[in-house]
Recover the amino acids of this structure.
């Protein structure tokens, strides 16, 4: 016999009246949730549209429905990947002119370094595609999608160390505690799936574990937004999501009964105190129950054609690899997930540029290009924005001894770097912005982090100045009080 009927058979009169009192609160809760509640603050839950979202969004017709952010943790060197500067070769080993660096702030690893010897690209570049884009020879697969991508070569930021810089890119502030971009997107727009979270995160790293950077939970946190909007992390080994499996001896039917009872209790408590986190708790219990059925199907690659698996590279079936995560990202947006964030660490080339850089390119180049091609082939690229880039660039001068090829490297460089985007709403085969002759500062059309954030939200149909949340007496937004949409890259 199921525990629920057995328990009901022995209800006391006191328990019967207690349950009846709870039942009276449920209609009151329903009337509360049925109203449109325009204020967006920490004490007033929004009326969800289909699978969540605010009633007045999108603000304008969206160019894309989904975002896949391939964040390269550790910062790829722009001089060796996308920012072709052949003129630097004749200055190899010479001191970078002071007029370019002007004693700008650097990390402590080179702040006191006496020499700033110019280090041109360690890899040859070639032109690719009808657009004639110059790309590193270490990125042959990315070269094949040059005509599908927009390259922004004038990105710049204010943070000089990894964690603050990533936090700034994702939350608009260098200090932890603000909602991440994925949380803002799902708070505003909800999700097209009721069986998977609206915001999913996956992480990977180089097999050599050369990069000491940590994946902090606040990179995908919801900050002061209700916690239902935080990213759900899919693990790189074992069960993709913790605590989805039922304990031994508990059937799915028993689990359903327990959740129904918990829902009644939580609804009654919400009617009493109005805490939005109670609504979150209800929603997350229900999502976990649905994911028990949806996640096994999601992670089953047996239905993928052989040529698709091969396109992502030999690592695609290894759970936790970047290739595996890229294919998962496509399968997630295919099922209606709003925002997918894939981190890959290992780009922190202070003393191993001549060895580890090639490995990083090999790990990420083919899967990144395959993702774009796969989305395009399935007709999903028009509705999806793919972003590839790090938290900053790396110095055009050498860290260490330029004559010691085994240990030379590049330090953190926030003043100019390159990212690329592909998909709906952005121009194809396009390049925007330029760095100076030494790839040290923007020379034309600088794009700040807040501009980048405003543009991503715009493509999703969100006016970055209007998506706000009241917290501690102030209305916050992702772009703080800054940011402009980079209309020049929009299709």
């Amino acid at each position: 016999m199921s525990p629920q009927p057995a328990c009901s058979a022995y209800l006391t009169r006191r328990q019967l009246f207690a349950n009846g009192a709870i039942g009276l609160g449920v209609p009151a809760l329903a009337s509360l949730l049925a109203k449109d509640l325009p204020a967006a603050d920490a004490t007033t839950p929004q009326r969800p549209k289909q699978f969540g979202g605010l009633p007045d969004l999108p603000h304008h017709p969206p160019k894309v429905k989904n975002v896949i952010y391939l964040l390269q943790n550790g910062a790829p060197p722009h001089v060796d990947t996308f920012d072709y500067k052949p003129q630097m070769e004749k200055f190899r080993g010479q001191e970078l002119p002071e007029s370019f660096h002007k004693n700008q702030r650097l990390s402590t690893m080179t702040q006191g370094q006496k020499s700033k010897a110019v280090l041109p690209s360690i890899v040859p570049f070639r032109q690719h595609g009808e657009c004639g884009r110059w790309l590193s020879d270490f990125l042959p697969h990315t070269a094949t999608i040059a005509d599908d991508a927009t390259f922004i070569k004038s990105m710049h930021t204010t943070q000089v160390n990894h964690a603050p810089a990533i936090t700034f890119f994702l939350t608009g502030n260098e200090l932890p505690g603000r909602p991440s971009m994925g949380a803002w997107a799902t708070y505003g727009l909800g999700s097209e799936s009721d069986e998977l979270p609206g915001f999913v995160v996956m992480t990977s790293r180089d097999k050599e574990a050369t990069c000491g950077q940590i994946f902090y939970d606040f990179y995908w946190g919801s900050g002061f937004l209700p916690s239902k909007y935080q990213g759900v992390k899919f693990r790189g080994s074992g069960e993709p999501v913790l605590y989805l499996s039922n304990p031994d001896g508990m059937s799915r039917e028993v689990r359903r009964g327990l959740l129904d009872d918990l829902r009644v209790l939580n609804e009654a408590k919400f009617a009493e105190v109005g805490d939005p986190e109670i609504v979150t708790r209800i929603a997350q219990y229900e999502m976990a129950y649905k994911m028990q059925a949806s996640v096994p199907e999601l992670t089953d690659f047996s239905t993928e054609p052989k040529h698709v698996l091969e396109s992502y590279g030999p690592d695609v079936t290894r759970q936790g690899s970047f290739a595996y995560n890229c294919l998962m990202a496509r399968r997630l947006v295919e099922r209606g997930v709003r925002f997918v964030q894939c981190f890959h660490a290992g780009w922190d080339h202070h003393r191993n540029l001549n060895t580890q850089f090639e490995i990083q390119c090999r790990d990420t180049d083919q899967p990144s290009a395959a993702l774009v091609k796969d989305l395009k082939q399935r007709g999903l690229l028009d509705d999806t924005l793919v972003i590839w880039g790090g938290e900053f660039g790396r110095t055009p001068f050498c860290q260490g001894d330029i004559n010691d090829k085994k240990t030379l490297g590049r330090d953190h460089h926030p003043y100019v770097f390159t990212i690329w985007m592909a998909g709906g709403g952005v121009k194809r085969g396009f390049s925007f912005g330029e760095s100076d002759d030494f790839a040290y500062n923007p020379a034309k059309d600088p794009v700040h982090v807040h501009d980048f954030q405003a543009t991503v939200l715009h493509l999703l149909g969100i006016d970055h100045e209007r998506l706000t949340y009241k917290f501690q007496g102030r209305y916050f937004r992702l772009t703080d009080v800054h940011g402009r949409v980079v209309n020049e890259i929009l299709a």
In short: The chain is about 30% helix and 15% strand. The CA atoms of residues 29 and 103 lie 61 Å apart. The chain has two domains: 61-240+307-489, 242-298. Confidence is low (pLDDT under 50) at residues 1-7, 21-50.
